[in-house]
Amino acid sequence: MARKAAIIGGGVIGGGWAARFLLNGWDVAVFDPDPQAERKIGEVMANARAALPALSDVPMPAEGRITFCGTLTEAVEGADYIQESVSERLDLKHRVFAQIQQASHGVPIGSSTSGFKPSELQENAADPSVIFVAHPFNPVYLLPLAEVVPSARSDAKVIEKAKEILREIGMFPLHVRKEIDAHIADRFLEAVWREALWLVKDGVATTEEIDEAIRMGFGLRWGQMGLFETYRIAGGEAGMKHFLAQFGPCLTWPWTKLMDVPEFNDELVDLIAGQSDAQSGKYSIRELERIRDQNLIGFMRALKDRNWGAGKVLLEHDERRRATFHDAGAAATGAPLVLANMQVLPGWIDYNGHMTESRYLFAASETSDAFLRLIGAGMDYVAAGHSYYTAETHIMHLGEAKLGDRLTGTLQVLGVDEKRIHAFIRIQRGDTVVASLEQMFLHVDMKVGKACPAAPEVLARLNPIAQAHAGLPRPDAAGRHVGQRK
Amino acid sequence: MARKAAIIGGGVIGGGWAARFLLNGWDVAVFDPDPQAERKIGEVMANARAALPALSDVPMPAEGRITFCGTLTEAVEGADYIQESVSERLDLKHRVFAQIQQASHGVPIGSSTSGFKPSELQENAADPSVIFVAHPFNPVYLLPLAEVVPSARSDAKVIEKAKEILREIGMFPLHVRKEIDAHIADRFLEAVWREALWLVKDGVATTEEIDEAIRMGFGLRWGQMGLFETYRIAGGEAGMKHFLAQFGPCLTWPWTKLMDVPEFNDELVDLIAGQSDAQSGKYSIRELERIRDQNLIGFMRALKDRNWGAGKVLLEHDERRRATFHDAGAAATGAPLVLANMQVLPGWIDYNGHMTESRYLFAASETSDAFLRLIGAGMDYVAAGHSYYTAETHIMHLGEAKLGDRLTGTLQVLGVDEKRIHAFIRIQRGDTVVASLEQMFLHVDMKVGKACPAAPEVLARLNPIAQAHAGLPRPDAAGRHVGQRK
């Protein structure tokens, strides 16, 4: 049965939380007295559906159900996790917690607050031990960071449970060990913001020039390594201490205006707003959101390919979810074996709107890998020193797989001997074959790098399948060379 | 004839400049009295060769020649551009400029200084009008940003010329209109650095926690949109002024400790160095550099796919070079075209420790996509409704590509007609072909889903290449079917 998340307070942040829970298979109950709440959350949800699944290489679970509740009580009843994202007013948050805690007991209550410390949130609460900060970053359905800030009054077990829930919805919970205004990340943003305001006010740089100074330089670095790791590298062979010795003295130079806060008056506001319009006004906000999300997907998939940073978080999330699927067992029947099931994911689509070429071969690999596992030649066998390698592949690109298509991979054995498997794989959408791949696999002793007979127990599983398939019609495409007349 | 860049002062920054010029086809003359200069620059060059070409979808020009000169005079004689990257000491820089200007007149002299204003650099110079700041970001051979800061004494034509040169080597020159300590970007880094030091000193966060707070959240955003554009989106429908109205008041909250500078003593240095070792010590600096570079390539290619930010800079650079590639008739040589460069990434490796099957097809797609762009059948052409589809592929899996291998994709045209391209792609590690892919592409009218002749302007680029390749030996593997006797 799906678990339930209660989202108290909508908008961009509450909507982002709702989307992340929902798309990870949780039921979501929303309470927000704003009559526009359902519309606003719907817009965030649309953005999220267009983006979050593109991070995944495992089919998404079925979406949960989302309900917009008439009362806060209804929203939190039976919830396994509660996230508060109302306006940044302490008195309002206190009232909300009081209401929540009349209907819910022992359930973690995370607050999206950027400004208040957990001890402030916990003041006068019926049960302070379950209230903590869980501060996300926009867009909440894409960026993994959630700063989790307990206080001395927090129940450590509740905090650990909250962190585990956040991991289960694909986030990276950063446990902030000492509560402090604005937690960690926003303190840096605040510092940069002040400096940027001075530069705009003093006419040194426009909003656009400031933004380019960020995204064409250190901004690119900070998506993959933070401040200290970057400087460690800069210290080079001489090391971090050398870097610090060089850099430390700069602190006393009059580089920043950080001693003062610029006066935030109408003149400054108009200046910034005007420059921002000139810089970004050619796109609507919705367009900018979609552009941002696609860029972030690109970055995060790049890190996923490299098993680094936010990409590592994605891989772990896939792994956790993959474990809940069970591979269908296959028997040696007189039909091609259905060995793989997959869904064409947003990240598999090229600029033509179709599945990229290489994904067909990926789909075939999923199919042949499943076949090798079936005959006992999977990872453990490989670890012992022998493996079936693909020697040759012939692909017929017959049709187009589109976003969302459910595909199966089937395998027909064309022929075997003690060293080789000659196979015909079909990637199908229902009965339509979108691609076929004829492949020759060669069994190799990996230590000496030479072909050799497969183990008797593997051949004992392989041969009956080959015999069962011997009566199947030979595919027309088998034996083709490129450009052969049809 | 290749142009000449003089690099005065080596190290990570000078070496990065040398690499960027060299790999973009300039001759480079280096002067640095450090006996280790050639070795250190060699290491930067090795990193750059492993990284910079991976950003390109146009064959790289021939590398320039690099010379390590015995005197500064020899380095700057005949140079078209001079970049100074000596230590951050004003008296030293003044001496260097004086020496340069005895041997060079009218040539732009950019300084990599992060700390000095151009007017300070120009003090007592023989010709101040050609001296300016050109401040890059590490790694200089990858990150596009160069802050170009003139002073009131600068010659505007020299500044424009310098900016054009920087664009020609693939950079994004940001013209800083008013000189100021640390220019623009480093002012932000300094602000964050101070805040981070306080957090470490006060035990609120370790170096690792700070770095995760950056790279799991806003760091990812800042690689594609800067501060103001991000906040514009956050302001949503209500707009920037609404966002500012909400955010402005926060400035008076006691969020930052920026009023003070933490004392930079041995104790703090040891604390930071120790935490940094714990965080990052499992990798050597060289390993971290390579990881960083591959991550940055991933980000920048993701932006390139989306024609955004730093990716737009790369596309414009390719476009500029493609024009000279055609003019030089380089496409009509009698050799297979080297069209793609890539490195086998951690995410491409299967349980055998080798590159997964589907990645060979991915590598081939990168190669054929680059070919299609070369003949004018890239994204814009596809957007207008026609596209070359892959109809059939035959893969010979010949060798194993391993983690870290640098691969090139070459394409040999076997035959063409008005609707088809018959191509032979080799994926190579150096001279060793690890996989070959024979492919038939079919030109299709996407609206009606039928094959049709390609546009005349595409055929006009395709046919000369086909003719130039007609004399190449036909690959043995062409025309094979699976299981054919060798």
Automatic annotation (TrEMBL), chains A, B:
<comment type="subunit">
    <text>Homodimer.</text>
</comment>
<keyword id="KW-0963">Cytoplasm</keyword>
<dbReference type="Pfam" id="PF02737">
    <property type="entry name" value="3HCDH_N"/>
</dbReference>
<dbReference type="InterPro" id="IPR006108">
    <property type="entry name" value="3HC_DH_C"/>
</dbReference>
<dbReference type="InterPro" id="IPR026578">
    <property type="entry name" value="L-carnitine_dehydrogenase"/>
</dbReference>
<dbReference type="Pfam" id="PF13279">
    <property type="entry name" value="4HBT_2"/>
</dbReference>
<comment type="pathway">
    <text>Amine and polyamine metabolism; carnitine metabolism.</text>
</comment>
<dbReference type="InterPro" id="IPR008927">
    <property type="entry name" value="6-PGluconate_DH-like_C_sf"/>
</dbReference>
<dbReference type="InterPro" id="IPR029069">
    <property type="entry name" value="HotDog_dom_sf"/>
</dbReference>
<keyword id="KW-0560">Oxidoreductase</keyword>
<keyword id="KW-0520">NAD</keyword>
<comment type="function">
    <text>Catalyzes the NAD(+)-dependent oxidation of L-carnitine to 3-dehydrocarnitine.</text>
</comment>
<dbReference type="InterPro" id="IPR036291">
    <property type="entry name" value="NAD(P)-bd_dom_sf"/>
</dbReference>
<dbReference type="InterPro" id="IPR013328">
    <property type="entry name" value="6PGD_dom2"/>
</dbReference>
<feature type="domain" description="3-hydroxyacyl-CoA dehydrogenase NAD binding">
    <location>
        <begin position="4"/>
        <end position="179"/>
    </location>
</feature>
<feature type="domain" description="3-hydroxyacyl-CoA dehydrogenase C-terminal">
    <location>
        <begin position="184"/>
        <end position="248"/>
    </location>
</feature>
<comment type="similarity">
    <text>Belongs to the 3-hydroxyacyl-CoA dehydrogenase family. L-carnitine dehydrogenase subfamily.</text>
</comment>
<dbReference type="InterPro" id="IPR006176">
    <property type="entry name" value="3-OHacyl-CoA_DH_NAD-bd"/>
</dbReference>
<dbReference type="Pfam" id="PF00725">
    <property type="entry name" value="3HCDH"/>
</dbReference>
<dbReference type="GO" id="GO:0047728">
    <property type="term" value="F:carnitine 3-dehydrogenase activity"/>
</dbReference>
<feature type="binding site">
    <location>
        <begin position="9"/>
        <end position="14"/>
    </location>
    <ligand>
        <name>NAD(+)</name>
    </ligand>
</feature>
<protein>
    <recommendedName>
        <fullName>L-carnitine dehydrogenase</fullName>
        <ecNumber>1.1.1.108</ecNumber>
    </recommendedName>
</protein>
